[in-house]
Specification:
The chain has 13 helices and 16 strands. It has helices at 17-23, 43-52, 56-59, 87-90, 93-106, 146-152, 166-178, 190-197, 205-227, 251-256, 284-292, 304-309, 375-390, and strands at 5-12, 32-36, 65-67, 126-128, 157-159, 183-188, 231-237, 243-244, 247-249, 266-270, 274-279, 299-301, 322-326, 330-332, 344-345, 357-361. Helix 7 links the parallel strand 5 (157-159) and strand 6. Helix 7 packs parallel to helix 9. The mean pLDDT is 91. Bound molecules: zinc ion (ZN).
């Protein structure tokens, strides 16, 4: 890679098109701007897509949990679950947070691991998709990830540590520039947490302040490059926007009121915006679809064509036999993710205006970059072009 040119990709979780349009975020400094189609799913789906260019159908990450009795790493936890009384204690947020850390360590997970509100009695029937650190070398197994690619190309690169906060990640990026790194992938996730609490419109002051802060940080990267007499090309990428809460539905209770037994007759994952069902006993599909009927004004069962279009279709039904997606703004409460709704949520239909992500750049963005799964190709192209020119 040419030594006096720097390529920076900055990922800002949940920086949606609507927010960027509404605030004019860095319109002068980053004049090349495009609305990007969100990756169907959550950040846990989008990150592996960004890091590999593969769809969820290819990399196998959709919801964090997956009904998979045969593949569950938690099978042995079933033995201690009956001892965990009173349940209310073990369901407290802080207890669950610490327990997540302990379980993650115990199982040697290097990826992001959180139990959320997944009931302990169901855990032995669940697999968890982020057991490995996706950013690490060979973190996605056989699939080449960004680090594998940059290492193979012998690039002088820096990739953020996702365990630490935004401030420290910008500090690390500045240090990396000083050390002569010429390809940076900076990861930031704090805007997402804020937008869950303060979704726009109207754009809350804390959100404006955070955006102003990102701008300052970006300008500081430009300044360092200028001081080092290096030209810089910076591209901001995001994975989705944020949709304000309009309504909650208790779809979980409706399914649990049926005579079906979880684990024997059916499997289920209740994410905040979608219900993934696995049908086991012969009648289970009919009974579950019947139980969900009252919610059909608030959501719909995805067709195979929709699954294919969103890159989540698997013939082996890894993600469940059927997926019921809520309409934008409507959250499933309670779900395996939480017992209370959030003011804002993502993970709705990618076509919804509040779902749209963005790419913003100092330089022209190739026409073919239209959805989240195209970012990896763009990063690859930039590395290969410079390699061809400079080395
Ligand atoms: Zn989020």
């Amino acid at each position: 890679m040419v030594k006096n040119e720097v390529e920076i990709f900055l990922f800002i979780d949940a920086l949606g098109w609507e927010l960027v349009e509404g605030t004019g975020f860095m319109s002068e400094e980053l004049p090349f701007r495009r609305r990007i189609e969100m990756q169907f799913g959550y950040s846990s789906t989008a990150i592996p897509t960004i890091l590999s260019g593969r769809t969820p159908a290819e990399h196998g990450h959709l919801g964090l949990f997956r009904f998979a009795p045969k593949d569950s790493p938690f099978r042995r936890l079933g033995r201690i679950e009956p001892l965990m009384r009173p349940r209310s204690f073990w369901n407290r947020g802080r207890v669950r947070h610490w327990l997540s850390r302990i379980i993650g360590r115990l199982y040697g997970f290097t990826g992001y691991f959180q139990l959320y509100q997944m009931p302990f009695c169901k855990l032995p029937l669940m697999d968890y998709c982020e057991k490995q650190d996706l950013f690490a070398s060979r973190g996605m197994g056989e699939i080449e990830n960004l680090r594998d690619f940059l290492t193979r190309h012998d690039a002088a690169y820096h990739i953020s540590d996702w365990h630490i906060g935004d401030r420290r990640n910008f500090e690390a990026a500045r240090r990396a520039l000083g050390e002569g790194k010429t390809f940076l992938f900076i990861y930031t996730a704090e805007l997402d947490a804020l937008l869950h609490r303060f979704p726009a419109p109207p754009v809350a002051d804390v959100i404006r302040e955070k955006l102003a802060w990102y701008r300052e940080e970006i300008l500081s990267l430009f300044k360092i490059c200028a001081d080092l007499k290096k030209t810089v090309r910076l591209t901001v990428i995001s994975d989705h926007g944020m949709t304000p809460l309009t309504k909650t539905v208790d779809l979980k209770s409706a399914v649990e009121k049926t005579p079906l037994v979880f684990g024997r007759d059916y499997g289920a994952c209740y994410d905040s915006t979608m219900f993934r069902a696995t049908f086991i006993s012969p009648d289970s599909e009919r009974i579950i679809r019947e139980a969900v009927k009252p919610f059909e004004n608030d959501g719909h069962w995805l067709t195979a064509d929709e699954e294919k279009h969103y890159g989540i279709y698997r013939a082996d039904r890894l993600f469940g036999d059927a997926i019921f997606l809520m309409a934008p703004g409507i959250q499933i409460v309670p779900s395996d993710m939480g017992n209370v709704p959030l003011n804002g949520m993502h993970g709705f239909s990618p076509e919804d205006k509040d779902s749209q992500a963005v790419v913003l750049s100092t330089d022209e963005i190739p026409e073919r970059v239209r959805c989240v799964s195209d970012y990896f190709g763009l990063m690859k192209q930039r590395v290969e072009e410079r390699e061809a020119r400079g080395v």
